[in-house]
Amino acid sequence: SYVLTQPPSVSGAPGQTARITCGGDNIGSKSVHWYQQKPGQAPVLVVYDNNDRPSGIPARFSGSNSGNTATLTISRVGAGDEADYYCQVCDRSSEHWVFGGGTKLTVL
Amino acid sequence: QVQLVQSGAEVKKPGASVKVSCKASGYTFIAYYMYWVRQAPGQGLEWMGLINPSGGSTTYAQKFQGRVTMTRDTSTSTVYMELSSLRSEDTAVYYCARGDCSSFTCWADYWGQGTLVTVSS
Question: Which residues of A, range 40-79, sit inside 8 Å of B by Cβ?
């Protein structure tokens, strides 16, 4: 089965740029979606289809996907961005989903 | 506005079954797939399966085949997820999530608030 690999943790200083990676075999051929989850809350979609943002998500959140790595980039990070972030892909033929293991973003 | 409202927390004994509901509102119920995702304490997200509310067809993750049943009631815009033969490892928060899809992929654009299921003797 398909495996998505994320670093357990990423940190960044306030105002800087944080990058969270999601590795998978030829993931560049798939569409990747990203969710933010704060403690005690349900996940929230922040990027879908590699680099589209739902309404209400600031442009500070962006995504890219090429080769074996997809990346969620959060610019000008602040305390409000501290959360767990999960990548996800969907195999449209089988309709199965796969989630990455999640990355905890800490704003120093 | 789109809302997914789930049923309340449950405590079950090992071997029992649990049925979690998810009532949708604010959109055309049969137009979007509904997915179920669970999260064990301190762990990541785990996909369980989906139901197409239009015809009721389902797709389950292999891990849950034979133990999970997803159904829907179009008259009340509610989907249900029943998990049987519960064991302690099934202790988790269970989420329903509305799926939006393009030609090639699907993602969850709205999530329920989650239902904590605790399995304990």
Answer: 42-45, 48-49, 54
B85 CA to chain A: closest CA distance, Å?
23
β-strand partners of A50: none
DSSP A52: B
pLDDT tens for A7-49 read: 999 999 999 999 999 999 999 999 999 999 999 999 999 999 9
CA quadruple A87, A8, A104, B61: dihedral sign: positive
Rounded CA gap, B101 and A95, in Å? 10
CA angle B104, B47, A106 (to 5 degrees): 95
pLDDT in tens, B56-88: 999 999 999 999 999 999 999 999 999 999 999
Interface of A with B in 74-103 (CB under 8 A): 84, 86, 88-90, 92, 94-102
Mean pLDDT of the residues in chain A: 96
Size of interface A-B (CB pairs under 8 A): 70
What residues in B contact A30, CB-CB < 8 Å? 105
- For A7, A27, A64, A102, B21, the CA distances from A77, given in Å and listed in that order, are 18, 26, 18, 18, 37
Closest chain A CA to residue B46: A99
CA distance A48 to chain B (A): 7
Q: How far apart are CA B1 and CA A94, in angstroms?
A: 30
Chain A touched by B52 (CB under 8 Å): no
